[in-house]
């Protein structure tokens, strides 16, 4: 399988606006499952299309296994069909007038693969993806999940060294998305392919990727394992973008004097961190606990009180919205909180679950 290197990639569509991609450098290891994650318009699909050869960078180089396939300065541009990469689009892009077998074998036919070899490959791939019984049907006769498997089969039949996926699951319902996530993990485990997967769904990225690259406004914010991205966000953007519920942010610039602000001052003094350098702190809802603590238990914990605004049961947990010092604060209770809107309640969080950010919104390591 192939490694991919992006060096100082810039992409501009002209005009006076900002570049779609600005100075992007990144290493994608062989057999890695990398998710490009970020909101709409951040540049993740543009990055994928430049790797595939469907977009030309304005500047920079792209290397596969150390060999340049794109170098603007040297005038190098390898056409898409010479890159040995498979691409699956969001809309599947199946030929409606062809049967499923004809769709899966389409790329092999263009390569002039001998018929016997082509049939063997197509049968093997269709069987692996569980679509062999639909071989003589047409795309319109299949469900969205089945069509997605056909698109994957057509791409896998070509044995690409790199698999590029552009939000392939966004058109599926929740159940089919779960099934296809499992399918993609199985494909990666069995084939060991290098996969680059574009998504705006942080849950998809966290459950699929070995490595996540978070992007915003054409710039790379952080690259790391799912645990790195979640537990050690490099800046406020990553902390606020990743998480099933938004992280609670305490702005120190507002000069608050409530219990959380007082606790933060104590923590900073204990750690020897200049409080003037800290712009904000983040606490994830799932790291917040409800209830009172003994004096011994409270050591190393931030504790406070808030007024319950709302309680939302989710089946296995309860989302509790609090008003703390006039600010909205979210906690997740794993047991019935036994409280109601309008009542006061205690909450606390352990010190290691605090995320500190400087005035430029960059992470401060505890």
Automatic annotation (TrEMBL):
<comment type="similarity">
    <text>Belongs to the ABC transporter superfamily.</text>
</comment>
<dbReference type="GO" id="GO:0016887">
    <property type="term" value="F:ATP hydrolysis activity"/>
</dbReference>
<dbReference type="Pfam" id="PF00005">
    <property type="entry name" value="ABC_tran"/>
</dbReference>
<keyword id="KW-0997">Cell inner membrane</keyword>
<keyword id="KW-0813">Transport</keyword>
<dbReference type="GO" id="GO:0005524">
    <property type="term" value="F:ATP binding"/>
</dbReference>
<dbReference type="InterPro" id="IPR047641">
    <property type="entry name" value="ABC_transpr_MalK/UgpC-like"/>
</dbReference>
<dbReference type="InterPro" id="IPR012340">
    <property type="entry name" value="NA-bd_OB-fold"/>
</dbReference>
<dbReference type="InterPro" id="IPR027417">
    <property type="entry name" value="P-loop_NTPase"/>
</dbReference>
<feature type="domain" description="ABC transporter">
    <location>
        <begin position="4"/>
        <end position="242"/>
    </location>
</feature>
<dbReference type="Pfam" id="PF08402">
    <property type="entry name" value="TOBE_2"/>
</dbReference>
<dbReference type="InterPro" id="IPR008995">
    <property type="entry name" value="Mo/tungstate-bd_C_term_dom"/>
</dbReference>
<keyword id="KW-1278">Translocase</keyword>
<dbReference type="InterPro" id="IPR017871">
    <property type="entry name" value="ABC_transporter-like_CS"/>
</dbReference>
<dbReference type="InterPro" id="IPR003593">
    <property type="entry name" value="AAA+_ATPase"/>
</dbReference>
<dbReference type="InterPro" id="IPR013611">
    <property type="entry name" value="Transp-assoc_OB_typ2"/>
</dbReference>
<keyword id="KW-0067">ATP-binding</keyword>
<keyword id="KW-0472">Membrane</keyword>
<protein>
    <submittedName>
        <fullName>Iron(III) transport system ATP-binding protein</fullName>
    </submittedName>
</protein>
<dbReference type="GO" id="GO:0055052">
    <property type="term" value="C:ATP-binding cassette (ABC) transporter complex, substrate-binding subunit-containing"/>
</dbReference>
<dbReference type="GO" id="GO:0140359">
    <property type="term" value="F:ABC-type transporter activity"/>
</dbReference>
<dbReference type="InterPro" id="IPR003439">
    <property type="entry name" value="ABC_transporter-like_ATP-bd"/>
</dbReference>
<keyword id="KW-1003">Cell membrane</keyword>
<keyword id="KW-0547">Nucleotide-binding</keyword>
């Amino acid at each position: 399988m192939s490694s991919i290197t992006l060096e100082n990639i810039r992409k501009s569509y002209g005009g006076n606006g900002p570049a779609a991609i600005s100075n992007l450098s990144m290493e994608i290891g062989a057999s890695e499952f990398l998710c490009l994650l970020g909101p709409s318009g951040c540049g993740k699909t543009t990055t994928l299309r430049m790797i595939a050869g469907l977009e030309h960078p304005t500047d920079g180089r792209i290397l596969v296994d150390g060999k340049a396939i794109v170098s603007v300065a040297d005038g190098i541009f390898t056409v898409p069909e010479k890159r040995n990469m498979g691409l699956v689009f969001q809309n599947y892009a199946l030929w409606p007038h062809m049967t499923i077998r004809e769709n899966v074998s389409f790329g092999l036919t263009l390569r002039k693969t001998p018929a016997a070899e082509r049939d063997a490959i197509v049968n093997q791939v269709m069987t692996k993806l569980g679509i062999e019984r639909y071989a003589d049907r047409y795309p319109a006769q299949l469900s969205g999940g089945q069509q997605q498997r056909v698109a994957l089969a057509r791409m896998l039949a070509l044995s690409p060294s790199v698999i590029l996926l552009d939000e392939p699951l966004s058109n599926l319902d929740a159940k089919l998305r779960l099934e296809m996530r499992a399918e993609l993990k199985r494909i990666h485990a069995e084939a060991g392919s290098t996969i680059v997967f574009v998504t705006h769904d942080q849950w998809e990225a966290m459950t699929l990727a070995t490595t996540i690259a978070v992007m915003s406004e054409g710039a790379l914010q952080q690259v790391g394992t799912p645990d790195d991205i979640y537990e050690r966000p490099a800046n406020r953007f990553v902390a606020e973008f990743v998480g099933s519920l938004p992280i609670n942010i305490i702005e120190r610039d507002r000069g608050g004097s409530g219990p959380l602000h007082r606790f933060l001052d104590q923590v900073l003094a204990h750690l020897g961190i200049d409080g003037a350098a800290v712009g904000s702190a983040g606490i994830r809802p799932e790291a917040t606990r409800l209830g009172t603590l003994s004096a011994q238990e409270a050591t190393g914990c931030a504790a406070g009180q808030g007024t319950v605004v709302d309680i939302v049961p989710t089946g296995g947990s309860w989302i509790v919205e609090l008003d703390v010092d006039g600010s909205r604060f979210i906690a997740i209770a794993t047991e019935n909180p036994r409280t109601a809107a309008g009542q006061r309640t205690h909450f606390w969080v352990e010190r290691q679950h605090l995320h500190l950010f400087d005035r430029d919104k960059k992470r401060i390591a505890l």
